[in-house]
């Protein structure tokens, strides 16, 4: 019988196979992957990173909004596929982490295109104006649902909304897997997925990749 990680949403041998086929990063992305692994900083999983790269390659976004910057890994990943006059605004509420991200972004020579704003995204997102071709939600999972209307407002037509961790170690999919203290977050993630599926302005798919990812396009 296959032993599998209780947090995995697909069999680990499938994940191992997918990961084995992904070309490794070099330079600062590789360094940040190692740093994140060493310090247990939650950056996107390799297959989710690959999905982000593919979607950015298709879209070549001009303006990107990211909620949840951590040390700048996914922002730097997306910057590789940014339109040459493009920009990324990434939000991070922890001041030390935001400062660390700024240093990494500076080191990568991307400070002119990536802005790290230290703020609470719950308050900052409703106040944002402008247009974004791609929005990546990877911050406070319990509040994705509260940011949905603003994300739709901020997205351009044809813009892409990507949200990570929506299956939340499988808990979102099945009551039996839900830990008591996670009930609220799980309920809100279910609501967030259903709302994206039902909103007439969006075409959305839920992918069992990484920790579960939704990809929605604004029609
Ligand atoms: C999963 S990590 C982001 C990883 C990053 N996107 C990457 O893959 O490189 C989530 C980050 O969101 C931040 N965060 C959580 N709640 C937030 C909030 N309300 N506003 C802004 N940032 C928040 C956390 O401090 C954490 O650094």
CATH architecture identity:
3-Layer(aba) Sandwich
Ligand species: S-adenosylmethionine
**Structural class category:** alpha/beta
Beta-strand content: 15-25%
CATH class: Alpha Beta
Can you walk me through this structure?
- It is a single chain.
- With 219 residues, the protein is of the alpha/beta class.
- The chain has a single domain (12-218), classed as Vaccinia Virus protein VP39 (Rossmann fold), CATH 3.40.50.150.
- Helices cover 41% and strands 20% of the residues.
- The protein is built from eight helices and seven strands, in the order H-H-H-E-H-E-H-E-H-E-H-E-H-E-E.
- It has a seven-stranded mixed beta sheet, sandwiched between helices.
- Strand 6 (202-207) and strand 7 (213-218) form a beta hairpin.
- The longest helix is centred in the C-terminal third of the chain and has 16 residues, at 183-198.
- The radius of gyration is 17 Å and the shape is globular.
- It binds S-adenosylmethionine.
- Residues 42-44, 68-70, 73-74, 91-94, 97, 120-122, 138-140 line the site of S-adenosylmethionine.
- S-adenosylmethionine is lined by residues 42-44, 68-70, 73-74, 91-94, 97, 120-122, 138-140.
């Amino acid at each position: 019988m296959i032993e599998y990680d209780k947090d995995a949403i697909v069999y680990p041998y499938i994940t191992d196979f997918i990961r084995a086929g992904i070309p490794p990063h070099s330079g600062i992305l590789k360094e940040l992957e190692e740093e994140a692994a060493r310090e247990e900083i939650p950056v996107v999983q390799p297959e989710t990173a690959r999905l982000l790269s593919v979607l950015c390659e298709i879209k070549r976004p001009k303006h990107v909004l990211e909620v949840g910057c951590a040390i700048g890994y996914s922002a730097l990943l997306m910057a590789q596929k940014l339109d040459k006059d493009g920009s990324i605004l990434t939000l991070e509420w922890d001041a030390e982490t935001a400062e660390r991200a700024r240093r990494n972004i500076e080191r990568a020579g991307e400070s002119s295109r990536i802005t790290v704003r230290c703020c609470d995204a719950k308050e900052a997102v409703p106040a944002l104006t402008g247009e974004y071709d791609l929005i990546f939600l990877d911050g406070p999972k319990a509040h994705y649902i509260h940011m949905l209307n603003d994300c739709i407002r901020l997205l351009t037509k044809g813009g892409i909304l990507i949200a990570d961790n929506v299956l939340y170690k499988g808990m979102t999919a099945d009551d039996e897997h839900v830990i008591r203290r996670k009930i609220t977050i799980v309920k809100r993630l279910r609501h967030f997925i259903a709302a994206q599926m039902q909103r007439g302005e969006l075409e959305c798919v839920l992918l069992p990749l990484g920790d579960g990812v939704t990809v929605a396009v604004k029609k």
